[in-house]
Amino acid sequence: MSNTTAVNTAPLCCAEDTWAADLVILPFAPVLVRCCAHGIQHVEILTLPDPDPVETSDSENTAEQGAPATGLVTNDDPDAVGNETDPELAPAEPTEPVPYVLRSAGTRLAAAHCRMLCKQLQRYARGTLQRFTVPIAPAVWQQATPFRRQVWHTLYEQVPFGATVTYGEVSQLLRGNERASRAVGGAVGANKIAIVIPCHRVVGANGIGGYAYDVAVKRALLALEGGTEHQV
């Protein structure tokens, strides 16, 4: 595979005060999503960090996915974007779990991305969606180092629903050197878009490995996907 990743040259980032945010309640944990007009900026699983992600002495299992804390901004303005009656932005049907527990103000397009991502996350949790189609904001790729971008792109494009890959296997794909697994772990830990960029599918050679959003959540995600063996 090529080690180069095409980078969208759209404007680096929307102003953060134009982003929209929603909290979707899924069976394994609440998930905060934040989007700008260009697409997804953050997907954060709201659990306490795993205090001890190391399961074996294997160096691969020392890598874990990071999850920087994100401030929540409430919005009670009935005229704000996201509280409108536009069909694309209206609340979910009563038969579905309510995805909009919390919302921050944002542009119409940012709110539309948030709504669609919430719907897709609900379908993912029900096992009826295997690939997300809401775009990732170009800034996410542009602000990453080249190596991190390669790792994320490899996971996003080449490790599908139901598959798992070890840190060493990813480093072998990218650098031809299994000993670079710690560098892969650093890239996994820097991922800001949980589930969509599927760092939970990266496991240790001798165990499930760590996960900053809690190993129990990682187990739940892999069980949902049926990812019990290395398949990449």
From TrEMBL:
The UniProt record lists the Methylated-DNA-[protein]-cysteine S-methyltransferase DNA binding domain at 146-226
Report the enzyme's class at the first EC level: transferase
> Which GO terms of the molecular function aspect are on file?
methylated-DNA-[protein]-cysteine S-methyltransferase activity
Q: Which Pfam families match?
A: DNA_binding_1
Could you tell me which CDD domains the record lists for this protein?
A: ATase
Keyword terms:
DNA damage, DNA repair, Methyltransferase, Transferase
Positions of the UniProt region annotated as Disordered: 48-95
User: What's its catalytic activity?
Assistant: a 4-O-methyl-thymidine in DNA + L-cysteinyl-[protein] = a thymidine in DNA + S-methyl-L-cysteinyl-[protein]; a 6-O-methyl-2'-deoxyguanosine in DNA + L-cysteinyl-[protein] = S-methyl-L-cysteinyl-[protein] + a 2'-deoxyguanosine in DNA
The EC number(s) attached to this protein equal 2.1.1.63
SUPFAM superfamilies registered for this protein in UniProt: Methylated DNA-protein cysteine methyltransferase, C-terminal domain
Q: Which residues form a coiled coil?
A: none
List this protein's GO terms for biological process.
Answer: DNA repair; methylation
Homology family? Belongs to the MGMT family.
Xref: PANTHER family: METHYLATED-DNA--PROTEIN-CYSTEINE METHYLTRANSFERASE
This protein is called what? methylated-DNA--[protein]-cysteine S-methyltransferase
Tell me the lineage of the source organism: Bacteria, Bacillati, Actinomycetota, Actinomycetes, Mycobacteriales
